[in-house]
Specification:
With 321 residues, the protein is an alpha/beta fold. It has a domain of 210 residues: 3-Layer(aba) Sandwich (Rossmann fold). It is 40% helix and 14% strand. The strands form four sheets. The chain has a six-stranded parallel β-sheet with strand order 2-1-3-4-5-10, sandwiched between helices. Strand 4, helix 5 and strand 5 form a beta-alpha-beta unit. The chain is globular and about 60 Å long. The two termini are 31 Å apart.
């Protein structure tokens, strides 16, 4: 017997980048494919209350991954819809799950919820010590609402909601649509396109001085399932790799692995985003034994290889997955 035997599981965003990997690992962990429910945004809009009520019926575990996501440019152009769509989906889905007596609610939060200036590595106790980086604030606050809601519901209703703070993800199957992709996928596409078109230079936003942490998608999926199985406390938990790399070094690595040897031009008129990101991942290891396993260079190479294999397919995911 495993934790997932005979459990009905709802995975919102199950058709998206992270969701596909979570669903695959769920099936490998013993969950019956016939009781893994994956609502798709094309037919089930979770911003509609009645749809949230429908999808949680006869469900034991909710893993809420669905969201409106994008890089700095997308977030700057759509702050209102980014906030509203993420907030309303999370709030309504958790309330519907509570009313339906769902056993457990796993909320995927975001590193964007942390203050703009946070001591590195980010510890969960510093989550409320300041305002998030401005370009990510609407998204970060919308996700943070699920933490507040989950803690309030635990206190009043004894509802078992947990909250995971995920760093930027990458890996095979990522969203490479330049309109809303994140930094690694955007850079891979940019350099491969420049190489193919024999362009002599590539322009990168910002100064390159900012740093980021990245978690390979398979590791993220494994961490989410470990938390679903073993973690049952109100405090949020970081889910990351515990590594830090500057954007300048990241650009150099991707340029090397895509064999691009042209010039790199930094557009310093564009924002860097949050100055630094690196998580303290000790709590996840302590509470449910999670540590990332994928070497970063290997993970980037795997992502590039996947993209090269799928160049002739539609690589963009729907913004709401």
């Amino acid at each position: 017997m495993t934790f997932w035997d005979n459990k009905s599981v709802l995975v919102t965003g199950g058709g998206g980048f992270l969701g596909k990997h979570v669903v695959e690992q769920l099936r490998n962990s013993g969950a019956d494919k016939d009781v893994i429910h994956i609502p798709r945004s094309q037919t089930v809009d979770l911003r509609v209350w009645e749809n949230c009520q429908k999808v949680v019926q006869n469900v034991d575990i909710v893993i809420h991954l669905a969201g409106v996501v994008g890089g700095i440019g997308y977030n700057m152009e759509n702050p209102g819809s980014v906030f509203y769509d993420n907030a309303v989906m999370g709030i309504q889905l958790m309330e519907a799950a509570r009313q339906a007596n769902v056993e457990k609610f796993v909320a995927a939060g975001s590193v964007c919820s942390y203050p703009k200036y946070t001591p590195v590595p980010f510890n969960e106790k510093t989550l409320w010590d300041g305002y998030p980086e401005e370009t990510n604030a609407p998204y970060g606050f919308a996700k943070k609402m699920m933490l507040i809601q989950g803690q309030a519901y635990r206190q009043q209703y004894d509802f078992n909601a947990i909250h995971l703070l995920l760093v930027n993800l990458y890996g095979p199957g990522d969203n490479f649509d330049p309109r809303n992709s994140h930094v690694i996928a955007a850079l891979i596409k940019k350099f491969i396109d420049a190489h193919a078109e024999e362009r002599k230079e590539v322009v990168i936003w910002g100064t390159g001085s900012a740093s980021r942490e990245f978690l390979y998608v398979d590791d993220a999926a494994r961490g989410i399932l470990r938390a679903a199985e073993l973690y049952n406390k109100p405090e949020p938990v970081n889910l990351g790799a515990g590594m830090e790399i500057s954007i300048r070094d990241l650009v150099a690595l991707i340029a090397e692995l895509t064999e691009y040897d042209g010039n790199i031009v930094w557009d310093k008129t564009k924002p860097d985003g949050q100055p630094r990101r690196c998580l303290d991942v000790s709590l996840a290891k302590k509470e449910f034994g999670f540590t990332a396993q994928t070497d970063f260079r290997t993970g980037i190479k795997n992502t590039i290889d996947w993209y090269m294999d799928h160049l002739n397919t539609n690589l963009g995911e729907n913004k709401i997955v």
